Please model this.
Amino acid sequence: MSKAVPRPPEPHPSGARPPQLDPRAIPAHVAIVMDGNGRWAKARGLARTEGHTRGEGALFDTIQGAIEIGVRYLSVFAFSTENWRRSPDEVRWLLGFNRTVIRRRRDALNEMGVKVLWAGRAPKLWQSVIKELRAAERLSRHNDTLTFQFCMNYGGRAEIVDAARRIAADARDGRLDPSHLSEKSFHRYLYQPEIPDVDLFIRSSGELRLSNFQLWESAYAELVFVDKLWPDFDRRDLWQAIGEYAGRSRRYGSA
Ligand code: IPE
Ligand code: IPE
Ligand code: MG
Model:
């Protein structure tokens, strides 16, 4: 089957180009906690939802910047297993909004060669959202410019528990010898086993915590915290974080 040549991303309106870095210094997998939408809106006297709305453009710009600089895997936190604690109005709004974002952006992402994958728990999540995520996955499944993991009803501990459940079931049914379970084989039970560990973990809004994102995958990630609120974030902030990452020394416990 012939595949269309991916369309290059639109350049940033400022004309900014990605920094010239040694390709070996580019993180393969970047994970982002897109935080600060509510505070962005509050500072302007707007409803919290206005901040989420503005975050869509920040995300789309960041995806294009990830392609330009050569990131292979990008994971973003869109809705956590803890976000159900928000008001029913905000939860409803966020689920509907994310459903619309996927539908609105999937053709452009597909044309740029982006492969969309959903990571998260199905129970409780609206069927209409899952349907949209599955459609984007199907449409983009042969792409390989960038793999974009959209984390929706995702929790790092939930992911590990879900893996443990499937491991236990495989052991019970004789498909797995518990004494053979390793870190490598455990990884195959995560939501998206084709995605490698996180190299660079970014969080916007100045909060210094992981909030249950990509816990297993980020065991050795480099952390970069950015003070900007998510709606103000763009690809230049991603590139700056990657520049910082490139200057770090990753030792993995060695001397
Ligand atoms: C991030 O922005 C978006 C989601 C968590 C869905 P927030 O809504 O958490 O914004 P703040 O942290 O309240 O400013
Ligand atoms: C993390 O942000 C979840 C997402 C960005 C989707 P939160 O705003 O929900 O996290 P906390 O409450 O600061 O830990
Ligand atoms: Mg927040």
In short: The longest strand covers residues 146-154. The mean pLDDT is 97. The longest helix spans residues 88-111.
